[in-house]
Write a structure and sequence with these properties.
alpha/beta, Rossmann fold, Dihydrodipicolinate Reductase, domain 2, 35% helix, globular, NAD(P)-bd_dom_sf
Length: 342
């Protein structure tokens, strides 16, 4: 039996890569692409996430799994999946939207007869699995820090750029000894020594869903996320703009233009520091083909896991449906990913 999978946003940057990797690894899957404009492809479905009247093709084509690679601000697709017992994976939600969607799913918990998976953590939600791999007993972990190297030369979609543009002036929450602390993007600079030849860089605050996931779900007392650009000048400039409140006097369109630049492709790197009372462990990961490839591959791992029929109905974050060993092994064996543990 062929599995019917719908990628909503399948014409976008990450959606296209998900489709490519799925076809390469699973030629028996029956793949559909949902978007607001029909193409001449036989697998194209007209789906407008803001208009539930366009959702009928999901039922007509007996879709068993919906993958969200475009924003669904009102969670219309999430509610439709719950109501119709369809499996659901979302990789698009920034922290504020994720908490709203998670609360919505929990409120409907008694009616859920499918697998609802939130995979909006960094790079398709694989950080939790990598932490599990080096320390499975979360009660031992005192602190986790995520450091991100982002290249402006990398291919980038609009969603993360728009999120930064809309939220750059707003505080967000990090956690120190289980106390929520309000901070802002591109402040609280420190130096971090990146692997893979990058070296020491200034890193600044960044809001990603792993802050919420690791503290509120996994109960890690202290969680921080910081990032740097490939350009030291751009990194310092962002810190300067935030310190002197220049972002506050810029229009939304100007901020979108500032954060929305996209190159032709470059590497992305992230590193996770896991501290227990007696040890500090570092996981370093490099995606040679950048963020889109890594996010798409992680998403494909989640899809394959759900279709293995070993996951019971319920609400999950992506690291909760896997064994950490299988995720690590899959990442280690992928031809454009390098990963190491110190």
């Amino acid at each position: 039996m062929r599995e019917n999978i719908l990628i909503i946003g399948g014409t976008g940057l990450v959606g296209k890569v998900i489709l490519r990797i799925l076809k390469e690894r699973n030629p028996d899957y029956n793949l559909f692409v949902g978007s607001r404009k029909l193409s001449n492809q036989s697998n194209s479905l007209l789906i407008d996430v803001a208009n539930p009247k366009t959702f009928n093709p999901i039922i007509e084509n007996e879709i068993g799994l919906i993958v969200m690679s475009t924003k669904d601000d009102a969670n219309e697709i999430l509610q439709f999946a719950i109501q119709n017992n369809i499996d659901y994976v979302d990789i698009t939600k920034p922290t504020p939207d994720l908490t709203v969607a998670y609360d919505l799913a929990k409120a409907n918990k008694q009616n859920i007869n499918s697998r609802i998976v939130f995979s909006s953590g960094w790079m398709g939600g694989i950080v939790g699995s990598l932490i599990d791999f080096v320390e499975s007993d979360k009660s031992k972990i005192q602190e986790t820090n995520l450091y991100i190297y982002y290249s402006v030369k990398d291919l980038a979609g609009k969603s993360s750029a728009n999120f930064l543009a809309e939220n750059i002036c707003k505080p967000f929450i990090v956690y120190e000894n289980n106390k929520a602390k309000n901070v802002k993007h591109f402040l609280n600079s420190e130096k971090f020594d990146f692997s893979f030849g990058i070296g020491k860089r200034q890193v600044y605050n960044l809001d990603v869903p792993d802050l919420f996931i690791l503290n509120q779900l996994e109960k890690i007392p202290t969680v921080r996320v910081k990032m740097t650009y490939n350009s030291k000048f751009i990194t310092r400039l962002m810190g300067y703009f935030q310190s002197f409140k220049i972002f506050n006097i810029m229009s939304l369109r100007e901020r979108q233009s500032l954060f929305g630049s996209s190159g032709n492709g470059d590497q992305t790197i992230f590193e996770i520091i896991v501290k227990t009372k007696y040890k500090t462990k570092k996981i370093s990961l490099q995606s040679v083909k950048g963020q889109a490839e890594l996010t798409a591959f992680s998403t494909v791992l989640h899809i394959e896991k759900l279709l293995s029929e070993t996951v019971s109905d319920g609400i999950y974050f992506s690291h909760q449906i896997h064994s950490s060993q299988e995720v690590y092994k899959a990442l280690e064996s992928y031809h454009t990913i390098n990963i190491k543990i110190d």
